């Protein structure tokens, strides 16, 4: 069976996905052929792909709360509100990602980013040579991080604008089964938010196509959710998503809430184990 797993981001809501992936790793009957991830889902997917998902859980539990990752004091000054560079240094050195596994693993990791010149989504396969730059780019949120990241020969930021969930890219590889890991409950839809869009667009005044992608993000997200509902209704995919709104928001800093979201991810997969087995034909 050729299995693909698609992981949504959502800032600190990614704590739900890391818990869900940790539980999923214990019950999957086969290693996935492909894992796709966007935004904060990217490090979750990376640690899952290398067989280190419990290390991924440790990072969320120990290194993302308080001002470790989100520091509002940096609203004034040149530093970024989201300390993405410091977080990636954790991936490199403190709780190191086994990058050699990315070359030897049966599972291919694909990370979605936005190309700043065109404003289009790009899906790049992670390798031991590009993975840390790619993870930085995947989490390069406008305003909160605001930098453009070079990966290989391109310049990128967070991929959640054109491909908030990389379902179309996963389908293109024609897997037999697809499990989609979401961080918002069923029925969630977005609305245009003029102030938020204006703040994000300010990060990239020289990239009009990226600004257009930022302004259209809510429409792209809603269209993707409609597609997921259609695919799920036809039995083509299975989704794992929180039963209601998570304790964490995109920029949450509460250790208690982050830990609660991790445990909710675990509990959600445990509750769906029978459904997962039926979907996978186990």
From TrEMBL:
Gene3D superfamilies: Cytosolic phospholipase A2 catalytic domain (3.40.1090.10)
Domain named PNPLA: residues: 5-171
GO BP: lipid catabolic process
Active site: 39 (nucleophile), 158 (proton acceptor)
Source domain of life: Bacteria
Alphabetical list of Pfam families matching this protein: DUF6363 (PF19890), Patatin (PF01734)
Residue interval(s) of motif GXGXXG: 9-14
Position of sequence motif DGA/G: 158-160
The protein, known as: Patatin-like phospholipase
Organism per entry: Enhygromyxa salina
Organism taxonomic ancestry: Bacteria, Pseudomonadati, Myxococcota, Polyangia, Nannocystales
């Amino acid at each position: 069976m050729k299995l693909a797993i698609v992981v949504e981001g959502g800032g600190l809501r990614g704590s739900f996905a890391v818990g869900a992936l940790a539980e999923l790793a214990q019950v999957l009957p086969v290693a996935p052929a492909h894992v796709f991830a966007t935004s904060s889902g990217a490090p979750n997917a990376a640690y899952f792909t290398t067989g280190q998902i419990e290390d991924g859980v440790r990072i969320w539990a120990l290194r993302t709360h308080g001002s470790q990752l989100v520091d509002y004091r940096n609203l004034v000054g040149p530093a970024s509100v989201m300390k993405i560079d410091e977080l990636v240094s954790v991936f490199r050195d403190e709780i190191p990602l086994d990058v050699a596994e990315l070359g030897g693993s049966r599972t291919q990791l694909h990370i979605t980013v936005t190309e700043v010149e065109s404003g289009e989504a790009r899906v790049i396969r992670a390798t031991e040579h590009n993975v840390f730059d790619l993870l930085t780019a995947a989490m390069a949120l406008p305003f909160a991080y605001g930098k453009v990241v070079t990966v290989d020969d391109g310049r990128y930021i967070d991929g959640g604008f054109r491909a908030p969930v990389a379902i179309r890219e996963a389908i293109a590889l024609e897997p037999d089964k697809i499990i989609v890991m979401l961080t918002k409950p069923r029925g969630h839809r977005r609305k245009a938010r003029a102030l938020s869009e204006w703040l994000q667009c300010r990060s990239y005044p020289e990239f009009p196509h990226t600004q257009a992608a930022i302004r259209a993000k809510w429409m792209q997200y809603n269209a993707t959710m409609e597609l997921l509902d259609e695919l799920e209704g036809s039995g083509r995919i299975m989704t794992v998503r929180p039963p209601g709104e998570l304790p964490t928001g995109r920029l949450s800093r509460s250790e208690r809430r982050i830990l609660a979201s991790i445990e909710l991810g675990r509990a959600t997969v445990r509750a769906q184990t029978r459904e997962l087995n039926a979907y996978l034909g186990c």
